[in-house]
């Protein structure tokens, strides 16, 4: 228990630090080679593109079991380019970009609830049979929420560093979590573009990915998101606690926990302890598998694409 509480506190402090880094209002330093094309921005052309409740949906492939890919906070479909290339010949992929992210217009003040309803509508309108939801961070939390909403309708959930409650807040009373969320929302939403760009670069370099060139390239893309929307989604997730409903999930759940030993050494946790902590936050999920991917930070599918693909592919074959 001591290790879990220490790890939760450190994650919470990291979240505070990432947002506080932008308070100086200083613009992010231009990354080396900034004039070169952004390696992550070259999107794969979809077979179809449409919108549901402001959510952009890009379909790739047309045969095989449907997979719904949901990126995390401030991210777009570019986060899934490796999985799209690998899986589009075997599965029908529906890749989402949420309102307010990646240059998309925002959709009001109920970001998470709107996205939750949009995915449910996508499943219903397209008559998707037992779709598997693959989500990163916020997208993983959204996948767990959908699996609670539709126990018989969702065929599986893969969550990459996305949990039913924000690590570091699981022991807080609801009022304290709500106050924390309001503070976070206002800090992010009120950032001017230079400050937001600085925060995105700081986050990517310390929490997002291992390679600094990749961190700078990714920060250029996440920086296209609207600060108010990012702040609202962050607040939505901070106030959320899906743990009471985990027992109702019928679908298998694969939770992928990224692990980087240099970061973990500062936190004093082992790879096994991190997996155990994630397993504890997901306690009650009937058909749960937790795997670690190393070395990787929060964007595990960018740091270790082959390992993430291998874990997902093996799990899908066992469904």
Structure report:
- There is one protein chain.
- This protein is an alpha/beta fold.
- The chain has one domain: Alpha/Beta hydrolase fold, catalytic domain (Rossmann fold), CATH 3.40.50.1820.
- The protein is 45% helix and 14% strand.
- It is built from twelve helices and eight strands.
- The protein has helices at 2-20, 81-87, 111-125, 138-149, 174-189, 193-208, 212-222, 227-239, 261-267, 271-281, 300-303, 305-317, and strands at 48-52, 55-60, 66-70, 92-97, 132-136, 156-160, 253-258, 288-293.
- An eight-stranded mixed beta sheet has the order 1-2-4-3-5-6-7-8, with helices on both faces.
- Helix 6 packs antiparallel against helix 7 (212-222).
- The radius of gyration is 18 Å and the shape is globular.
- 49% of the residues are buried.
- The model is unreliable at 1-34 (pLDDT under 50).
Task: Draw up the topology in text.
Blueprint: H1 2-20, E1 48-52, E2 55-60, E3 66-70, H2 81-87, E4 92-97, H3 111-125, E5 132-136, H4 138-149, E6 156-160, H5 174-189, H6 193-208, H7 212-222, H8 227-239, E7 253-258, H9 261-267, H10 271-281, E8 288-293, H11 300-303, H12 305-317
Parallel strand pairs: 3-4, 3-5, 5-6, 6-7, 7-8
Antiparallel strand pairs: 1-2, 2-4
Helix pairs in contact: 1-6, 5-8, 6-7
